[in-house]
């Protein structure tokens, strides 16, 4: 009888130890799950904060790039939309893609920008493209490869460049600085200096933005100019929109030398 009671107590003791062990295991698993949940929450919060900081930093860089222009237009950025799109794409991963190798253009890679469509390519890619394009032309026409200055086209817009214009060095967008250093506070591939490229069509003024991708915006300078027919008094207008009509009868002599133009003031 005593041995039976001892065996029963021993069994109960083992069952209690097993239950206690399972409880401890479940407790540890729950604690580990809780720690993981807290870590993931903190990590996601820090990533969101990082994205917000990055977005704010990007906004400051874009604002600094355009500040010289907006001071001449009283803060009006309507004419900057096209250029702004190119600048924003320069910051977005994967937005700038080399159309030759179909790979992303990274901040620390040497690039070349087409002056016709402003598309950006890797430097080695565009150099090989230019060489292959010229070889293809000469292989069809004659055997004078290397002797004649055959043109090569931009892969995107087909704007033609001379053989002598094949890029050999990496410059910033405005062409002032060779091998521009990577600066996290500047637009990628920019030197950070004032662009100063001539406006197209030429007006005698130069671009006021900091070195930037894409086309230069219309000239924001204020000039005093009269209408097409020269009858109205000169008024102050933006250089990019300096030509205007007073809508009065033109009155200029026609080619016959006897009659005058009866149309409203026109170009």
UniProtKB/TrEMBL annotation:
One GO MF term attached to the UniProt entry: DNA-binding transcription factor activity, RNA polymerase II-specific
Keyword Glycoprotein: no
Top-rank taxon: Eukaryota
Residue stretches spanning the membrane: none
Domain named RING-type: residues: 98-158
Species of provenance: Neotoma lepida (Desert woodrat)
Region ranges (Disordered): 1-21
One matching Pfam family: zf-NF-X1
GO CC terms of this entry: nucleus
Protein name: RING-type domain-containing protein
Family: Belongs to the NFX1 family.
Basic and acidic residues compositional bias, start-end: 11-21
Keyword Repeat: yes
Keywords: Metal-binding, Repeat, Zinc, Zinc-finger
PANTHER family in UniProt: NF-X1-TYPE ZINC FINGER PROTEIN NFXL1, NUCLEAR TRANSCRIPTION FACTOR, X-BOX BINDING 1 NFX1
Gene3D superfamilies in the cross-refs: Zinc/RING finger domain, C3HC4 (zinc finger)
């Amino acid at each position: 009888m005593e041995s039976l009671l001892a065996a029963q107590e021993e069994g109960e003791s083992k069952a209690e130890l097993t239950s206690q062990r399972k409880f401890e295991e479940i407790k540890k698993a729950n604690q580990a799950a809780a720690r993981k949940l807290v870590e993931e929450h903190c990590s996601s919060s820090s990533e969101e904060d990082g994205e917000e900081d990055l977005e704010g930093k990007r906004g400051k860089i874009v604002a600094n790039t355009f500040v010289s222009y907006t001071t001449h237009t009283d803060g009006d950025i309507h004419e900057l939309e096209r250029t702004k799109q190119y600048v924003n794409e320069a910051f977005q991963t994967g937005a700038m893609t080399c159309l030759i190798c179909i790979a992303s253009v990274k901040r620390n890679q040497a690039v070349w920008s087409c002056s016709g469509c402003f598309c950006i390519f890797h430097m080695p890619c565009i150099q090989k493209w230019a060489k292959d394009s010229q070889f293809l032309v000469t292989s069809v026409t004659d055997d004078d490869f290397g002797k004649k200055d055959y043109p090569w086209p931009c892969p995107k817009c087909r704007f033609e460049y001379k053989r002598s214009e094949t890029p050999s060095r990496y410059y910033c967008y405005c062409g002032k600085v060779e091998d521009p250093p990577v600066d996290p506070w500047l637009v990628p591939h920019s030197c950070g200096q004032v662009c100063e490229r001539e406006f197209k069509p030429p007006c005698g003024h130069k671009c006021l933005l900091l070195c930037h991708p894409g086309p230069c915006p219309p000239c924001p300078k204020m000039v005093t100019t009269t209408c097409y027919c020269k009858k109205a008094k000169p008024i102050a207008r933006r250089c990019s929109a300096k030509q205007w009509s007073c809508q009065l009868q033109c009155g200029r002599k026609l080619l016959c030398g006897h009659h005058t133009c009866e149309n409203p003031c026109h170009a």
